[in-house]
Structure formats: structure tokens, C-alpha cells
Amino acid sequence: MARHGGGRGWYGKLVGAALGVTVLATGASVWTAQAGAVDDSSPKATASARPSSAVEPVDLTIAHASDKGARGVNITIDDGPDPVWTPQMLDVLREYGVKATFCMVGTQAQAHPDLVKKVVAAGHRLCDHSVSHDTTMDKQSEAYQSQQILDAERMITEASGGVRPMYYRAPGGAFTPYSRKLAASRGMRPLGWNVDTKDFEQPGTDAIVATVERELPNGPTLLFHDAGGDRSETVEALRQLLPRLKEEGYAFGFPVR
Questions:
Q1: Quick check: helix, strand or coil at residue 74?
Q2: What is the mean pLDDT of each run of 10 residues along the chain (257 residues)?
Q3: Alpha-carbon gap, residue 160 to 125, rounded angstroms
Q4: What is the pLDDT, as a whole number, of residue 122?
Q5: pLDDT attached to residue 42
Q6: Is the bond preceding 81 in cis, omega lying within 30 degrees of 0?
Q7: Percent share of the chain, pLDDT over 90
Q8: CA–CA distance from 8 to each of 104, 163, 225, 232 (Å)?
Q9: Global pTM?
């Protein structure tokens, strides 16, 4: 999810009850500034979402490209799963035959394992979005970053019935060289975005659609949300965008691994 202030109190209440973690919000997204390589890189793994006896590391640079190439579009959906909005988004995606990447918050996955399993059963991919959606991750200790990433990985994997997340998206784009290296070592490609729809601000369906149409030339990975508030505008925006983009010759895929 893009970094922003306000409107996120539901995470603090949920996580405070579950883990005693305070959710903080701060300034503008930093993922672009932190997208450079760290000292050592890791070999790429296969794209299988199924667990194996040994986790193979993947590339630690932040992914933006689509596996469908130059006319590819990646639908990514953050902050859920949510019992109201995730099923509606799954219905729209199924209607238009589109697969998406769901970036799940660990506590949400733990609370709604049935929805995690539905996401997987429908052929979508999972992404680790940390335990508590702390957008100050880049200001925290390595021990804290490790706890947030690895505990969320475990929560999501357990909720899914054994299917591991294939990506890691830092809350608010608050990546660090350490968090990218750690995620990649666990087979989770760091995942960025090119188009922030700002749907979390509830700007209206028309504004969400217009943002995608205006900014899609910036790159293929689109950022939407299925939790954290009323997401009816996002559901309707997807209903309009998916067939329109298909008509324009785009193919829906997954972020590169």
C-alpha cells in the first residue's frame, strides 16, 4: 500500500489486540529511492507457489515488470483479506478471467484463512505485506523488520494451507536493503508498483479509473486495496477497467520473479 497518513486506525486496533504492535503512518513513499541493489545478489528460483523442502532465493531487486511483457498489466491488491470486499473482488476477477496478486497483512490472513484459501484456489498469487502494516519499517531495527516479514510469511502460509507468498511488498514502500535481502532469501521477490490508484482515499470510481488510464504508461503494476475501509469504488473501478484494458490489447499477468 502507498504510504499515507490517517484513516488506518483499524489496523492499530486489530494488531494491538493481537500482538501489541502500534501501527504508525508517515510521509511519502520511499520504495523508488531504495530500489538499488545491495552488496550481494541471489539466484532466481522457479515461479512455483507451492512449498518445497528448501526455499530457493530469488532476485532481491524490486520488481515492477509483468511476466506478460510490454503489454502486460499486473493487478495487485493490498491490505486484506477482508470478509466484505475480498469476495467481491474475487467475483469481478473471475468474471473477466483475470489473475491478481494479493498482498496480505499477516493478522488479516490469520483472521480469515477461508479467504486466503479462496484466493489461492482461484489461481491468484500471495504476497507478504508484513504482520501489522507499519509504514515506518525502514526506520526500525533489523530484528523488528525480520519479525514483521517472517511472522507474516508464516501466518499467510498457514492460513493458505501451505502455499507460500511469492512476493514481499513493504508497507508504504518502506523497503530497506536488509528487508529486500531477507525477503529474497525466503523466495519472496520484493514488489513495487508503478500506478498508485489512491483508491484508499475514496476519490470516486471515475477518479480511480482516470488515474489508471493516465499513469499506465509509467509501468504495468497497478496498486489497489481490498481492506481498510469501504472499497466499493475499487470494486466498481475494476469492473470498468478489466474489460476496457483487454479491449485495448493488454494482457493480465503477474509481476516478474
A1: strand
A2: 43 41 32 34 34 79 97 98 98 98 98 98 98 97 98 98 98 98 98 98 98 98 97 98 98 98
A3: 11
A4: 98
A5: 32
A6: yes
A7: 79
A8: 15, 28, 13, 17
A9: 0.83
First-to-last alpha carbon distance for the chain, in angstroms, is 20
Distances (CA, A) of 230 to 15, 94, 103, 113: 20, 21, 18, 21
Catalytic one of 4, 64, 78, 128: 78
Report the pLDDT value the prediction gives residue 1, as an integer from 0 to 100.
Answer: 54
The full DSSP string for 117-148 is HHHHHTT-EEEE--SS--TTGGGS-HHHHHHH
Q: Which residues of 10-30 are buried (b: 16+ CB within 10 A; e: fewer)?
A: ebbebbeeeeebebbbeeebb
Q: How far apart are CA 104 and CA 153, in angstroms?
A: 10
78 among known catalytic residues:
yes
The C-alpha atoms of residue 90 and residue 224 are separated, in whole angstroms, by 13
Q: How many residues does the chain have?
A: 257
All cell numbers assigned to 196: 498508485
- Residue of 112, 124, 129, 225 marked active site: 225
User: Is residue 64 flagged as an active site residue?
Assistant: no
